[in-house]
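TASK: fixed-backbone design
INPUT:
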């Protein structure tokens, strides 16, 4: 299988040299390197040219005439790749020397469409912080890879910087969304096909420096819920629209819609309308969702079950604010 690397850059002169050197030093060499620069105004492109001038790996450097943004820039890079397998690459990380060697054998299973791995967290200076990516994002890799379809319905935990995928899978599933990033979109679709594989090894040094284009983060539901209740009305609606977009796309492409996705959509739809329910109706709905373990399954915590009573009360008291939050 031919191996491509899709590297997207933007004002990354501080870190891109180290990333390129880690790619060139792989124990299993890649076959080509495609670099799409999204309008850097610093010395990024000059740095890339200097590092690659003596490289034995074929490469292309494409400078966008106008900025495409993260998702479209990666999609452009993926399209330009001629390999069977594409390694998605950020400009500010560092690959372990055996990253390609460890991931490629997994694709010998033709059912696997996308592989992601864990990563060690490093700071701006390249020092390990002692954290690994799955801990920072807040998830535990499942023992059964088929469980990913449920995990991805409550956690955006597959990071593009650790991801490799089949070119054909990308072509079949390319979709530009205002809500989804490329990694989350492709990962959830791969999971629905039981084609997502997670390798729980830190094969990337994932750099967090305060200027990441897209990174990791989380919030505490109780603290945020008590102080910003109207945020959660909008949040529930956004989650509903997020997963509804997946359902619509699956139907349009004549792919099967997993029952768990429909259940997830109904969960967030019900919670987005909580301000419209009577107390008895709200209590009936939330109790049923808790009994069916839906709060854990789709929101990753039962805290929302108790918060929903608080939200309902606040929304009833401040009706105008609740209506505004829902619209």
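OUTPUT:
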């Amino acid at each position: 299988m031919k191996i491509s690397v899709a590297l997207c850059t933007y004002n990354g002169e501080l870190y891109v040299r180290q990333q390129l050197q880690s790619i060139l030093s792989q124990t299993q060499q890649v076959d080509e390197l495609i670099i799409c620069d999204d309008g850097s105004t610093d010395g990024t492109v000059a740095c890339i040219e200097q590092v690659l001038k003596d490289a034995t790996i074929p490469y292309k450097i494409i400078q966008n005439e106008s900025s495409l943004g993260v998702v479209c820039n990666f999609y452009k890079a993926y399209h330009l790749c001629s390999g069977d397998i594409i390694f998605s690459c950020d400009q500010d990380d560092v690959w372990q020397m055996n990253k390609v060697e460890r991931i490629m054998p997994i694709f010998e299973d033709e059912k696997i469409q996308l592989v992601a791995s864990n990563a060690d967290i490093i700071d701006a200076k390249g020092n390990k912080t002692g954290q690994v990516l799955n801990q920072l994002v807040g998830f535990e890799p499942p023992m059964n890879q088929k469980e990913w379809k449920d995990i991805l319905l409550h956690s955006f935990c597959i990071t593009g910087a650790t991801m490799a995928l089949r070119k054909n899978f990308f072509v079949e599933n390319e979709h530009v969304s205002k809500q989804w990033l490329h990694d989350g979109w492709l990962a959830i679709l791969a999971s629905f096909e039981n084609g997502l594989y997670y390798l729980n090894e830190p094969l990337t040094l994932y750099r967090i420096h305060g200027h990441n284009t897209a990174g990791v983060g989380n919030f505490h539901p109780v603290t945020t819920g008590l102080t910003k209740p109207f945020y959660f009305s909008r949040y529930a609606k956004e989650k509903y629209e997020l997963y509804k977009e997946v359902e619509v796309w699956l139907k349009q492409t004549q792919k099967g819609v997993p029952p768990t996705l429909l259940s997830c959509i109904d969960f967030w739809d019900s919670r987005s309308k909580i301000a419209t329910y009577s107390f008895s109706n709200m209590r009936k709905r939330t109790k049923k969702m808790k009994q069916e373990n839906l709060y854990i399954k789709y929101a990753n915590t039962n805290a929302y079950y108790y918060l929903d009573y608080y939200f309902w009360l606040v929304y009833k008291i401040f009706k105008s604010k609740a209506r505004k939050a829902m619209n």
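COMMENT: The chain is about 45% helix and 15% strand.
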